[in-house]
Write a structure and sequence with these properties.
It is a single chain. The chain has 52 helices and 14 strands. By secondary structure, the chain is mainly alpha-helical. The strands form four sheets. A five-stranded parallel sheet has the order 2-3-4-1-5, with helices on both faces. It has a four-stranded mixed sheet with strand order 10-9-8-14. Strands 11-13-12 form a three-stranded antiparallel sheet. A hairpin with a 5-residue loop joins strand 8 (about 775-780) and strand 9. Helix 24 packs across helix 26. The longest helix is centred in the C-terminal third of the chain and has 27 residues, at about 915-940. The model is unreliable at about 5-10, about 230-245 and about 765-770 (pLDDT under 50).
Length: about 1000
């Protein structure tokens, strides 16, 4: 049990978010201030790359202060290379100025959103506000590609008002031009930061050096800021590698800085060099008993440090601190390790346990590192920083050690997250060999549950049950008991009840079992635990596929890092099934081949069975090769697949289909399909039940039992209703259309659910005993026209057109008499209005082809014959809805398609009623918002002419929309049209003046910045 109490949630090192203080004696550099201000205003990203000591940080602090807008600052170090940790600090920096960003990173990680996408959400949270985000110290991310992806995503998704300044000592592999736009990235390098002779002269005067020629110093050093000062001192004092240092700068620091101090002061600086910020309390924790008085004395010296105004908190210049750390590291290993241990203890007392683990590891204090890691490693895993967790566990939890027992649950969680079930079982077996497996299960239900999960994957159900039986009752153990429901029912319904989601990491397992049972609604809900969300994400894609939302499933599958956390399941099972349903043979083959390697690497026997079952499904559905499918199914069966009920059900389902496709006699098929349907029904496992029951219906018919055939078909229909999707049943009916045709023949009415299935099959190009239903096209913008089969139809009265428009807008294209009177006659319900409504419906039927017009059935007007009613307004709204789900160019294209419809003219021109007016205003407002969004996106992608046209159309329709005026000002600024900035602002001001108001503060502040 760890002796360390966990830190408060969200604890961060605040000094990393503070703008670095400027030196007390500082040379003003208006040249740099003007350059930075110009580049910040005209570009999305400013890249500052220069060597240490070149004055990057000081220059940016000065320039950003002069710029005048809000600034978020984050100083990066090596620990921030963990992408989850980096996101937490980015959130804290941005949320200080944008309240909407608070909690966004943690909630997004909870939603299993990949790290780069979380970064994009943080960037987008800035919205229409203006913010300067400075990230200092990117050189710490060399080789840390996941952290660089996070930075790249911030740049990619940054809205117009978010400016990003990146400071680094080295070049990094980030293609900023591709992310922000080739003409939206500015670079500041050594030559820009270099002192001019005039600036060098001022700096030398501030340093108390008046007898050195500034031009000569600049020429000798190339203007390097630290080098100018050093060169001056070097020339003046004839310093060359003094102080025993090979590096001349270090020599200067040794001979001219440290040598001027008394030993006690030198010792203080060297020992406290581990601290990013030195205070009396923190220095005392490192053994400096008189820290307060020493800080007072040091402040009187001329040192390369910064002091926090009004305090005795000190920060060393980066090059000076590097030198001091080098001095510390030269001491004996025992002394250095003692200092790092003391620093680790300080970090523990401050609640910074992750940093403490790193210091304890450097100090070889592994027991203390285990104490801290035991408390905080769960947070690291929750943040999805698996690389950090792997490093810690590799050092602290070798087989047989006390660390392996104390950190065993974390090691097991990591094996699950990495889909390395073989390693998870190896950890559990090692614990068993040392006689502590059951002890861990008793003391840590989570550890016991994950051991049981890993055993399940390797077909070791006896070991799984042993671990479960000794573990105390808990949500985690309930989750793995639920997992057993896929292997055996033990003859009792409800023996393995579905547990309530607890918010813990084993919620992932519950979600997976939900999916296997076909509980697709539950799978669509996001777990509260970020770890659970991370490893269960592929099930979301599976649920989308199983419910027929193939486009959404494909978009999510192809999205960035969609298979990062669960690649074996993603590419071995979910991906191939999706490609099969999409009928993409080539892609299905490719993903299957990729997935087979990942499945083998995971060590999961169950995954291997599932992958072969999917391959058999591929042979049946796409290759139409039942013999090949039967061979694959035999492999699964001979490997022990029937040990698990849900595998046995899949074996019987696909074997039944293969037999039906390859043999006219259904004797063998009916046996296995009855067994599959019976097992699924008893276990309430309905994922594949619609398909299995349709196949059984065909088999029963071939066996000459139409009653049982209908019963099986009814079972399929019930299962589809529970799933709230017809996708699975439609796929099966496409294989055996005769099942549907026979049911249609027995239905009394034409609006039965089976008729709906027939229509859906026809929409997929499958004929199923129904004639193709007619398509009615309604044009509503600019003119009102009804078209059927390419021919325009003209009702005799205009009210019939309004009636058709109303029916097109309401769900199901049917409405009650009262609703029609309210919408079309402004609520009049007298006999005259009712007669006119009957006349409008009659004239509409008269104009349409015989038999397809709407008819009153009781109190409801609707179409009695299935029709497709395609209206411009519904297409417009569909494009708007589609745009909301997309990003980038795809979103812009969807918005432009919607606007192309709206731009055809006024909605229902010439028709007036309260409903028509309200609907018209609603669509017009949607069009204004769509146009504004399109203008913003066009501007972001440097399509300035299109952006200007769209924004001008917005202000023409709504001159009080300030966000559109701000876009026009930004477009003018981006294209170098300073007069255009002023003109747009004046037009905005004049428009708002009509309402007696002035432009908002954000508009005025933007105008002032753009004019600089």
């Amino acid at each position: 049990m760890s002796r360390i109490k966990g830190p408060p949630a969200g604890l961060i090192i605040r000094s990393k978010l503070a703008v670095p203080p400027l030196a007390e004696r500082l040379v003003e550099r208006p040249r740099l201030n003007q350059l930075f201000s110009k580049l910040i205003n005209q570009n999305r990203v400013v890249w500052v790359a220069a060597t240490a000591g070149s004055g990057k940080t000081t220059a940016v602090v000065q320039a950003a202060t002069a710029w005048g807008g809000p600034m978020a600052w984050l100083t990066l170090d090596g620990t921030d290379a963990a992408p989850g940790r980096l996101l937490i600090y980015l959130e804290a920096a941005i949320a200080a100025h944008v309240p909407d960003a608070a909690g966004l990173a943690s909630s997004a990680l909870t939603a299993r959103i990949p790290h780069p996408e979380v970064a994009g959400l943080l960037a987008e949270s800035v919205g229409d506000e203006d913010l300067l985000l400075v990230l200092d110290g990117l050189e710490n991310f060399v080789g840390s590609y996941e952290a660089l992806e996070v930075i790249g995503a911030v740049v990619r998704y940054a809205p117009v008002g978010l400016k990003v300044v990146l400071l680094t000592r080295v070049d990094l592999p980030i293609d900023l031009s591709a992310l922000a736009g080739v003409d939206r990235v500015a670079t500041i390098g050594e030559e820009d930061l270099a002192f001019t002779p005039e600036e060098a002269a001022g700096a030398l005067v501030e340093a108390g050096i008046t007898d050195i020629d500034a031009s000569s110093a600049v020429e000798a050093t190339g203007g390097w800021v630290t080098g100018v000062l050093f060169e001056a001192w070097h020339s003046r004092l004839h310093i060359s590698g003094t102080g025993g240092e090979a590096d001349p700068l270090h020599g200067y620091l040794a001979s001219q800085i440290l040598a001027k101090l008394v030993p006690e002061e030198r010792e203080f600086l060297v020992v406290t060099s581990l601290l990013d910020e030195v205070t009396p309390t923190r220095a005392a924790a490192l053994g400096q008993s008189n820290a307060g008085s020493l800080l007072v004395r040091l402040r009187s010296h001329h040192l390369p440090v910064s002091w926090i105004s009004g305090t005795y908190r000190m920060r060393c210049h980066p090059r000076f601190r590097e030198y001091l750390v080098t001095c510390l590291e030269r001491r004996g290993p025992a002394e250095v390790q003692a200092m790092r241990r003391a620093y680790g203890d300080l970090l523990v007392s401050e609640g910074h346990l992750e940093e403490a683990v790193e210091q304890f590891l450097a100090a070889e204090e592994l027991d203390l590192a285990v104490d801290a890691a035991e408390v905080v490693v769960g947070d690291v895993l929750d943040r999805l920083d698996f690389v950090v967790a792997e490093k810690w566990l590799g050092r602290l939890a070798p087989p047989g050690s006390s660390g392996s027992r104390r950190l065993g649950p974390a090691a097991l969680m990591l094996s699950i997250a990495r889909e390395d079930y073989r390693k998870g079982v190896s950890i559990a077996d090692d614990l068993q060999a040392n006689g502590v497996r059951e002890d861990l299960a008793r003391s840590s239900p989570r550890g016991g549950a994950i051991m049981a999960w890993c055993y399940w994957h390797l077909d070791r159900l006896d070991d799984m049950r042993t671990v479960i039986d000794v573990a105390p009752s808990s949500p985690e153990i309930d989750a793995v008991r639920y997992l057993l429901s896929l292997a055996s029912r033990r003859g009792a319904i409800g023996a393995y009840p579905a547990p309530v989601l607890s918010g813990g990491p084993l919620d992932a397992l519950v979600m997976r079992v939900h999916y296997a049972h076909g509980k697709l609604r539950e799978v669509s809900k996001m777990p509260d635990s970020p770890w659970a969300a991370a490893v269960s994400a592929p099930w979301r894609i599976g649920a989308l596929r199983a419910t027929g939302r193939l486009t959404e499933a494909l978009e999510l599958y192809r999205s960035t890092d969609a298979g990062h956390w669960a690649p074996a399941w993603m590419h071995g099972i979910v991906g191939p099934e999706l490609m099969i349903d999409l009928e993409d043979t080539e892609e299905a083959q490719r993903v299957l081949a990729e997935g087979q390697g990942l499945v083998r690497a995971s060590g999961s026997i169950v995954f291997d069975w599932l992958n072969r079952l999917i391959e058999a499904k591929f042979e049946l559905r796409l290759n139409h090769a039942p013999v090949a499918a039967l061979a694959l199914l035999e492999q699964v069966e001979s490997a022990g697949g029937r040990h698990y009920d849900f595998i046995a059900e899949a074996l019987d389902t696909w074997k039944g289909l293969a037999l039906l496709l390859s043999r006219p006699d259904a004797g063998d098929a009916v046996v296995v399909l009855r067994r599959a349907v019976k097992s699924m029904t008893e276990a309430n496992r309905i994922l594949d039940l619609p398909a299995a029951a349709i196949y059984l219906a065909e088999a029963e018919w071939r066996q000459g039992d139409p009653t049982k055939s209908d019963e099986a078909a009814d079972q399929a229909m019930v299962a589809a209703r529970i799933q709230e999707s017809n996708h699975q049943i439609l796929l099966a009916l496409a294989d055996f259309q005769a099942v549907l045709t026979r049911r249609l023949d027995s239905e009394e009415f034409t609006d039965s659910p089976w008729h709906e299935l027939g229509q859906a099959l026809m929409a997929r190009g499958v004929k199923a005993g129904l004639n193709e239903h007619p398509v009615i096209i309604l044009s509503e913008f600019g003119r009102i026209v009804i078209t059927v089969a390419g021919q325009e139809v003209k009702p005799r009265i205009a009210k019939s057109l309004k009636l058709m428009a109303y029916l097109a807008a309401v769900p199901g294209h049917r409405a009650s008499r009262e609703d029609l009177l309210s919408a079309l006659f402004d609520g009049q319900s007298d006999e005259s209005a009712r007669a006119y409504l009957r006349q409008a419906a009659h004239r509409l039927r008269e104009a349409l082809p015989a038999g397809i017009g709407p008819i009153f059935t009781g109190n409801t007007l609707g179409f009695t014959t299935p029709v497709i009613l395609d209206s411009e307004s519904t297409r417009f709204e569909a494009f708007i809805a589609k745009a909301a789900r997309l990003r980038g160019q795809g979103r812009l294209e969807a918005l432009l398609k919607a606007l192309a419809i709206a731009d055809r003219g006024e909605y229902l021109p010439g028709l007036d009623s309260s409903w028509a007016t309200q609907r018209r205003e609603q669509l017009e407002e949607q069009a204004v918002q769509a146009r504004l969004q399109a203008a913003q996106m066009a501007f972001t992608t440097q399509q300035y002419r299109r952006a200007e046209q769209l924004a001008e159309q917005v202000v023409a329709q709504d001159p009080y929309k300030e966000s559109a005026w701000r876009i026009l000002m930004r477009i003018a600024s981006a294209t170098g049209n300073e007069d255009g900035v002023v003109a747009s602002y004046r037009r905005c001001k004049a428009a708002l003046n009509e309402l007696g108001i002035t432009p908002s503060d954000s508009t005025q502040q933007m105008f002032q910045r753009l004019r600089r």
